[in-house]
Each structure stands twice: as C-alpha cells, then as structure tokens.
Amino acid sequence: MRETTRMTAMKLMFALVFSLLAATAHAQSLQQPVLTYFDQPGLSADQLGVIVNDDDPDSVAIAAYYREKRSIPAANLIHVRFKPGDSNMSREVFIKLKRRVDRATPKTVQAFALTWAKPYRVDCMSITSAFAFGFDAAYCASSCKPTRPSPYFNSNVAQPYATYTIRPTMSLAASSVADAKRLIDRGVASDHSNPAGTAYLLSTSDKARNVRAAGYEALRLQMNSIIPTEIVQADTLARKTDVMFYFTGLTHVPALDSNTFLPGAIGDHLTSAGGELFGGSQMSSLKWLEA
Description:
Layout (H helix, E strand, L loop, with lengths): L1 H24 L22 E6 L3 H14 L6 E4 L10 H14 L6 E4 L6 E2 L2 E2 H7 L26 H5 L4 E3 L5 H14 L7 E6 L12 H8 L5 E5 L9 E5 L13 E8 L17 H5 L1
Parallel strand pairs: 1-2, 1-3, 3-6, 7-8, 7-9, 9-10
Antiparallel strand pairs: 4-5
Helix pairs in contact: 1-7, 2-6
C-alpha cells in the first residue's frame, strides 16, 4: 500500500511540475488552480500510434524496437513514405501526409510516437505539434509572442483525441539507432521504478531564459513532500548522482555529462532553438538524451 501511495504521488508530482513550469513560462498567474489528478495516469499500448517512415531504414528499426518493447499492436503501426534527411518538411507535403495518417489511424489511438529525428519541423511548427494539432500558422509566432493556446493544457482528459481531436505527439529522436534504443530502454526501465531522486531547479544568470524561477518557490513547497526539491542559484549543476528533474534556463547547459540521470528523468533548458536538433546555434534537446 505504501508503494502504491508513493507511485500515485509521483504521478501527481509529474503533472504538477509540468503545469506549474509551463504556466510560469507563459507568465500566467500562479493563482490559477493547477490540475494534478487524472482518471487515467498513462496511455495503454493500444492507445498509442507509432508512425514509421518506410523510406528511412533507421525509422523502420526504431519503430520495430519500440513496438517490441512497448507491445504496441500491429494495427497501430502507421506507415508513411517521404525522403529522409531533411530538417524541414513543407506544409504542403505535410498536409497530404497527415491526411493519409489520419485515415490509417485507429480511432482508439489517442497519441502518436514518431520514429525519426529528421524532419523535426514543418515550416514554422515543430513536427510534433503539427501532428498533434494539424498544421496551423496560428500555432506559430515571431520572437517570444504567445501562440494559439492548447485546449489540452491543464486538462484531466484521459482521451485527448476523443475530446479535443488532438493527438499529443512525442518524437523518439536520436542521433543514431543505438541512441534511440538506449532511450527506449531507459523508458522501459523507469516503469513502476518509483525513483528516489532529486528535483533541481536552477535559477541562472540568463534573465531572458530564467523567467520560470519566479515560480520555483511555490513549486518547491508543493513538491517537497513527494520528492526532495532544491533551488540552485547557479548556471551549472555538476556531479549529481540522483537527478530526477533538471530545469534551467540557458542557451547551452554545461557539465551535463558529469551528472547521473535516473531512468525517466526530465530535463529542459527553456531555449527557443532547443528543438533545432542538428546544427543550431543553441544546445539541441538531444544533448539531454545523450547525457
């Protein structure tokens, strides 16, 4: 019973972290109630669609490995074909591809997993957002202006497609098939692991990317009974062996490799170009997965 109670608390804590930090990043009031309860805390295998590019051998290999490890039904493997290797997919190509995906996707599927690293954008949208919402320039913005809000934010809906016609989308992105398999293995290792780690909230010297720090103390007070939470006034976190959460605000995060991230750990550096996975001027989000 004690383990079950702690597992439930951990799930609530994950929801709390994402809701509070997202709200802070968008300068929303911390007085807004933060939802931390879900009727269904996770997806079942038959609710996830895996999209594979049959013209990309790496995508085929990653999709097969993920299907095996996560017991995804064969009917939920959705096949597409496009030339691999380009960072961007044009909106015209994407719209046609998305129509084919929607026709091939079982209605029970509530979310997608993409099995490639490129392309990672569709013109002005990330490719994950484009698959989730469909391509819509209303979800694009110049500089740091707000986009159209997602109706799924701070919602306890367990079936977002059935309710909002939105399929939240994740990317099994990696620099190689071997890296992707390690990513998948860490996810599997985290299942029901009830990790005893620490949440590190870094308040950095980068004023433009440190806006979430205003909400750190409220977050610490609500999380500390579930997981040890430390607010660190520094640009660097180094040689920690118990990292469960690592939130910071920098264009590049130093000393990542010196830390030990527990399976299922979450890291984010709140930078505009983190989703530019290859060749960008700021640190790629892939560096978190490689640490």
